[in-house]
Amino acid sequence: MKLTFIGAAHEVTGSCHYLNACGKHILVDYGMEQGINVLENKPLPVAEALIDYVFLTHAHVDHSGMLPLLSARGFKGKIFSTVATADLCSIMLRDCAHIQMQEAEWKNRKAKRSSNVEPHEPLFNMENADDAIKRIVPCPYDEIIEICDGVKIRFTDIGHLLGSSSIEVWLTEENVSKKIVFSGDIGNKNQPLLRDPAFTKDADYVVMESTYGDRLHSAERPDYIKELTEILQETFDRGGNVVIPSFAVGRTQEMLYFIRKIKEDRLIQRHEDFPVYVDSPLAVEATGIFHKNEGICFDEEAMELVKKGINPISFPGLRLSITSDESKAINFETTPKVIISASGMCDAGRVRHHLKHNLWRPESTVLFVGYQSVGTLGRILVEGVDEVKLFGEPIEVRATIRTLTGLSGHADKNGLIEWIEGFEEKPRKVFVVHGEDEVCKSFAECLQVEHGIKAYAPYSGTEFNLASGKLEYEAMPVYVKKKAKPVSDVFSRLVAAGQRLMAVIRKNEGGANKDLAKFADQINSLCDKWD
Among residues 52, 66, 69, 54, which one has the least CA distance to residue 127? Predict the structure, then answer.
């Protein structure tokens, strides 16, 4: 009964934890790393083909984005998530695959200009994404689900994203029972659309995030409507556009909620009919999924609108841009407007084109409405850079760069502490993850010194025995070094195929001798061909 920390250990993205219990190999999240990776992540302790189950906290790609890679490397198990998370993953994982394939195509076009450059292969493709999606088992909130002998789970609404959850995991092995809770990303209170995070009653061990473990949101709930109205009014009066780099799922829908209220109350003067473009096919699809799941995820305020027949995230002047031609046409429309486009950290997607057309314009505003990871273009702009390069072209930053104060899907330090103190009895140990290096350290120290909670911030590779309650291996930080020569993507695929073959061999142990002999002959024949 062992827990191994893999991703989002002293880092904010790439969430992944490994459980080895009851004879099963289990992952809790398998997310994509974003921005600069300062620390090396240990590889999975077993081949991907041997993973039996994945428990998924929510659909954001830093928690779900590598699930297609599991399928690409032979995973044939089940992925358990909430109903809304399953719906969102059906579009988000395909979007991840689309980006992977686009980037591979771009790198290969660029490589044609150089000699002796091997073709670039995407980490995974659309077929892998579709396979991962087919393996998702949608589950309701608040029901105990028996996964297999000795393993049960329950999803609890954590208020971070549509369908987001903390996950309670009960493990029983050799007459020893333990309960571990994975917080997922803990939501901020009093946010539009979604309910506040729910508490969990008890646990032996807790793995919790610490994204904002070193900062506090405003003591008073910010007046988002007022602040956004002022930004829109000032920008439109200058004749500029407001470009909002926004996460397609969650933050885009919140912005539409605010803008609907601004338009309904006619708070903008002289530009009352300003157009609002949602330029992201993913965001358009996600907005439909929000409608579909409103009954199980929306808070009371949003549901009151629904009961009155009002769509909380739609209004006159809302224009949905799907095709690339529609996206390009936006920048030839001279009317002052709002452009909401992904990605939220400006590291990919259509928003980069809108930045190219607006960053150099002093009359425009770029408004950030979400967390910006270290190393992303969004973080660089927020920190005040004078010039950036987009599509190989230097762009002077003359636009006003703003951040919508207090708008966050993550709980602040007080919110995190409130959640962990919501347990009726203190857990035996709390593992602090999903925060920048110093934040993980300081928040763990805060829990321990100020709140009497035994807390520890593990590095990737740390192993903890849940049955004995002892660390079996305490990993030290390993910082990323530039590799002299990267391993070929195609060779990596070959290694993964070999791992999958070994997994298939192990799963056939105890099979009929006749079938095993035939299998061995086929393998030997293949080896003879390539030896």
Answer: 69
State the distance between the two ends of the chain, measured CA to CA, in whole angstroms. 40
What per-residue string of b and e applies to 444-483 under the rule 16 or more CB within 10 Å gives b? bebbeeeeebebbbbbbbbbbebeeeeeeeebeeeeeeee
Beta partners for residue 209, in sequence order = 433
In angstroms, the CA 516 to CA 187 distance is 51
Between 496 and 518, residue with greater pLDDT: 518
Cross-strand partners of 130: none
- The maximal CA–CA distance of the chain, rounded, in angstroms, is 82
Residue 251 φ/ψ region, left for φ over 0, alpha for ψ in the -120 to 50 degree band, beta for the rest: alpha
The answer to whether 41 and 13 have CB atoms below 8 angstroms apart is no
> For residue 516, what is the enclosing H or E element?
helix 513-530
Are 321 and 279 a contacting pair, CB within 8 Å?
Answer: yes
Q: Which two tokens stand for residue 471?
A: 């660390």
Which ranges of 402-467 does DSSP label H, i.e. alpha helix?
Answer: 413-420, 437-451
**C-alpha span between 95 and 126 (Å, rounded):** 9
Give the rounded distance of the alpha carbon of 516 from its chain centre: 42
What Cα–Cα distance (Å) separates residue 2 from each residue in 20, 25, 29, 155?
A: 5, 10, 16, 21
Three-state SS annotation for 64-91: HCCHHHHHHCCCCCEEEEEHHHHHHHHH
Residues 6 or more apart whose CB falls under 8 angstroms from that of 392 comprise none
Q: How far is CA 400 from CA 16, 353, 355, 363, 365, in A?
A: 37, 17, 12, 8, 5
- ω into residue 324 within 30 of 0, thus cis? no
Could you tell me how many residues make up the chain? 531
Average pLDDT over residues 252-280: 95
Q: Which helix (H) or strand (E) holds 167?
A: strand 165-173
What pLDDT does 486 receive? 45
- The CB-side HSE value for 302 (13 A sphere, CA atoms) comes to 26
Q: Which residues contact 311 (CB under 8 A, 6 or more apart)?
A: 260, 291, 305
Question: Average pLDDT for residues 55-77, to the nearest whole number?
Answer: 96
Mean model confidence pLDDT for the chain: 91
Q: Which two tokens stand for residue 251?
A: 């933050």
Main-chain phi, psi angles of 53, to 5 degrees: -140, 155
Q: Which amino acid is located at 148 in the chain? A: C
How far is the C-alpha of 208 from the C-alpha of 181, rounded, in Å? 8
DSSP one-letter string for 137-149: EEE-TT--EEEET
Average pLDDT over residues 260-273: 96
**Mean pLDDT score, 70-94:** 96
Q: Could you list the beta-strand ranges (E) of 233-391.
A: 242-245, 276-279, 318-321, 338-341, 365-368, 387-390
Q: Give every strand in the sheet of 318-321, ordered side by side.
A: 318-321, 276-279, 338-341, 242-245, 365-368, 400-403
